[in-house]
Amino acid sequence: MINSIFFSKLRCPLSGQKLNYRTDDRLDNSDISANYFLESEDGKYTYDVINSIPRFVPKSNYADNFGMQWNMFAKTQLDSFSGLPISEDRFWLATGWSPSILRDKLILDVGCGSGRFAEVALKAGAYVVALDYSSAVDACYQNLRHYPKLLVIQGDVYHLPFEDEAFDFIYSLGVLQHTPDVEKAFFALPPKLKLGGHLCVDYYWRRFQTMMNLKYLFRPITTRIDQRRLFNFLQSYIPIVFPVSSFFGRIPILGKILQRFILIVDYTNIYPLNDKQLKEWALLDTFDMLSPKYDNPQKISDVKKWMEESCFEDVQAFHAGHLVVQGIKKTINQ
Fold it and tell me: Is the pTM of this model over 0.85?
């Protein structure tokens, strides 16, 4: 069953009511903990719990490509697997938080993927609700199920299944630009944060440098291709162009310009990955930039305005790989 600390915060995303456990008598399995669903207090809405993960969304949705990629690359970006603090460094740099302030706090990870940032927060001793719209939740659960302070949920950012002011910290890294309405997705987060709580969100930055990325020429085509076919093509394409990109990368000044004309994400000389890891990360992130249905970079003026309209103070916006915005929810709304 779900840890009581988490369960007390859960709410029906459609009615806002508390949820109750119900045993699913349709299943013939001696493990009763695997045979239950969640039901709203009035009994109108029910939600399956499959493989210990509450499911509040349809099985198939616009984020199917993310479910595919994170289940195929379930461990690739986990620091515990790569042996490098890549996710950890990005997490602490973006949030500005420290391990000591997260211990025993309740944190919401919006768009957890396979759990790369949830792992960092769990290692700091936090209670983490890892939420994703896609079936990536299955990879996240398998990767991190050994942490007793974890709850994985398949849910919708527009209809979060939690009571208001439930969390001490909320973060969403590399996610909201892939939602249909980024502004609406952002405004769904502040109500779930306690007064005095911390929020950190990052986005693709809508600026000239970003919009000149070669991917925007190809996405009108690649987003219409069957995801499995696109992935299979990239599996053949990446090994061919990767050596070319790496060669260009060794050319001073001009090399970086030339790399922009190759449709590949190349982390050579950026992360200390070995050759096998570099090619795997290249395949993962090239697929990630070409396959999502939505790709919506944001202006810095807009994301700062959203924070201010949501009554945040100490708002900071800066570039750390992405456009990062962080702030603290005012204890007294003005």
Answer: yes
